[in-house]
């Protein structure tokens, strides 16, 4: 594993657990009813406030993808000024990294554009916003819904884009049938990221479909909140939806087709275990991810990566 360090300056100061375990409680007092979690050694918490007697800190932390807020004994914490970072795995030459004591992963790459899930992504005459070859070919379709004979469904007059194929994403809403375009995550509307279909990557990171991510364009300092909604090739990483591309200041469409990605300078921070395995609205993605991002260290920390 490769290690490096970075300095952190953040309005929410991070601390590390120094004992073998540390109880986090709903109130700054020890009793049998207020235990809300147990933090392992070296786990990272973010300080919110001191208690009146300075014996307790009110903290927020991310444990197994869930946000916990409560009180811990301050004497069992050590202030962090440097984070040791290790490389978990390399995908296509991109290092996937993680700080000690945290579950969040991060990496820097460019961003190619994924139109999947958009109801106007693919058309039988190859006039959709994405090229039909990106959905497969007869006998081997991977990004459109097919019937029992392996032929793509065509949207009807009651669907958003009659005559178009129905484009899929790996994350879907099971409340809709498979040939309903609403089942899938619309690339033109929802900021989402794509991660590799790589079993080693999944095992090492613990990330699952529906988890949340922060994406930052270092060249123009635009920040976006996103959801993990589709699976890509096992040896590629650095891909996002049309809506995510727009949020980062890049219009991916040339003559109404996806042609322009972002070549470099995109930082991704993913929070494994943070989602519920379901598609989410933009407001839900923003609300959930914003709080995770604040606890993780916010804009100051992402700029220091």
Q: Please count the helical segments.
A: 4
> Uncertain spans, ≥5 residues at pLDDT below 50?
1-10
Q: How are the strands of the largest sheet arranged?
A: 11-17-14-16-15-20
Give the tally of structural domains.
3
Mean pLDDT: 94
SSE ordering: EEEEEEEEEEEEEEHEEEHEEEHH
List the helices and strands and how they pair.
Elements lengths: L2 E5 L6 E4 L3 E5 L9 E6 L3 E7 L5 E8 L2 E8 L3 E3 L2 E10 L2 E6 L5 E10 L21 E2 L2 E2 L50 E5 L2 H7 L6 E6 L4 E11 L6 E3 H6 L5 E2 L2 E2 L3 E10 L10 H15 L1 H7 L1
Parallel strand pairs: 11-17, 14-16
Antiparallel strand pairs: 1-9, 2-5, 2-8, 3-4, 5-6, 6-7, 9-10, 11-20, 12-13, 14-17, 15-16, 15-20, 18-19
